[in-house]
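Priority: medium. Attachment 1 of 2:
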């Protein structure tokens, strides 16, 4: 006898994050393109704009990354921010308060993206498991479904 089973009824695991070297490759490829675009459009004298754009890039890369990729992503974005978005272009410098703040912002953005992604995936997995296991609709205000 054949028993028909829907493929979507079982619980699905939380998606696995992308490997750390791939995230770093995305930062290594995306940061110079973004800095070059901003230098062309707005000019090289706008480090705050470049910091905001690279923080957004770090957060977007963090959405699919592991937590261990965040420091490397922040450092790669900072290297391109410091080396090419701040005059003189091509020269790395260290101004302690400014660069520490920039690194903190980039690291916070990468960690925020990763945390947000993990929370969304965990919540979705919890809803799938709780909806399938309790026999209800998955909503706390409704009871079990009638037969």
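Attachment 2 of 2:
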């Amino acid at each position: 006898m054949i028993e028909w089973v829907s493929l979507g009824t079982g619980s699905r695991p939380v998606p696995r994050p992308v490997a750390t070297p791939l995230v770093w490759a995305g930062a290594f490829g995306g940061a110079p393109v973004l800095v070059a675009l901003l230098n062309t459009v707005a000019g090289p004298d706008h480090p705050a704009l470049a910091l905001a754009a690279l923080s957004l890039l770090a957060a977007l890369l963090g959405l699919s990354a592991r937590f261990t990729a965040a420091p490397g992503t922040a450092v790669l974005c900072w290297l391109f921010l410091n080396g090419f978005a701040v005059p003189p272009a091509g020269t790395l410098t260290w101004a302690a308060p400014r660069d520490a703040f920039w690194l903190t912002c980039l690291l916070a953005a990468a960690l925020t993206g990763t945390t947000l992604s993990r929370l969304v995936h965990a919540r979705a997995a919890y809803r799938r498991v709780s909806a399938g296991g309790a026999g209800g609709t998955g909503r706390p205000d409704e009871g079990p479904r009638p037969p």
